[in-house]
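note to self: dont lose this again. the chain is below, predicted strucutre after it. 406 aa total, dont forget to put it in the shared folder this time
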Amino acid sequence: MGLRYSFSRKRSRFTGLIALVSMLGMVLGVASLITVLSVMNGFAGELRQRILSLVPHAYIESTSGGITDWRALVEQVTAQPGVVAASPYISDKVIFGGPYLMHGGVLTAIDTASEGNVSRMPEAIVTGSLAALDSTPFSVILGASLARVLGVMPGDTVEVTLPRITVTPLGAFPRSKRLQVVGLFEVGAQPDTYQAYVSLDSGQKLFGEQGRVGGLQVKTVDLYQAPDIAGQLRRQLPDDSEVRDWSQTQGSLFRAIKMEKIMVSLLLLSVVAVAAFNIVSTLVMSVAEKRRDIAVLRTMGASARGVMAVFVAHGLGLALAGISIGALLGALLASYIAPVTAFVEGLLGVKLFDPNVYFISELPSVLMGRDVAVVVLASLLLSLLATLYPAWRAAQVAPAEVLRYE
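---
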């Protein structure tokens, strides 16, 4: 009976219009929420893939300042369960100087032979090669965006000022060195704007490490098992060894993305809430129209709980129709957001996502069944709450007062 009330053509046009608006609001709210969550999943996946392609799963450093016998430590670490590879590195913040301006960044010395085992940095090189770092003394590979900012290209030189002091008869000066640019890398994320690489041999001379390295980069069998494996390494290594995993070095970024997703979800859920509480208006008007029907049902023996159930079903019928259509529309839009965006760009004649600005050329989207289920259940819960008061008012209708003059 409640479903018949929901989709009956005999109700007044105004009540039908309010019901249609409520259902369309639910469709819009559910579809937009599913689509936005899928796009945010896509952005998070892009960031994870791009940033973590250069970030090792874990780091091992010495609190006593540098690691001398790093080759033995590499053998010890790679023998541990869950560790795939390890590679030495030296890294510090520096100032890069181009022909016209200076820019801060991070200079990392790597072992070119083993770097590909712990990161995807060799695959990200777009100009030059990793081998050029060994063949050309004091050479550097810059991030593509950093090179653009400095105004240099492969073949040019950059002045690097390191946080080290050189003492001369004329006084103490910061250590600086001219490095030849032999390549560029690009991952389409923030490391392109500040990261640069030199060979391990050049790095040891620049940083004055004299055969030592700053630490080891470690790759594990699985990115998400890295915190547990890092904990195991921490217990196996000497007390002066510090072990950090990617969730400690980059985790704040992904926690911020997760928090942003939650906040956007709550904001968009307000659209669903407005649509759900529009159902209140629909049911209140339906109760006013159906007072005579309610009175007849009560005189025929229907209980107050039964009348209340009829109007709860009436409201949930409208909500279920809107939620089902919205979930289907949202899933389709999330799955085909890239072609839809391309169509809009072609229609308007503009480029919505310039890869030079946003690092992407199209909207990424990852549709997750868990998100769809959460949106549907939350919408159903809000709709159920919205139906309770009008249904309770319907159950309070007194048959004698309604039928007194019939």
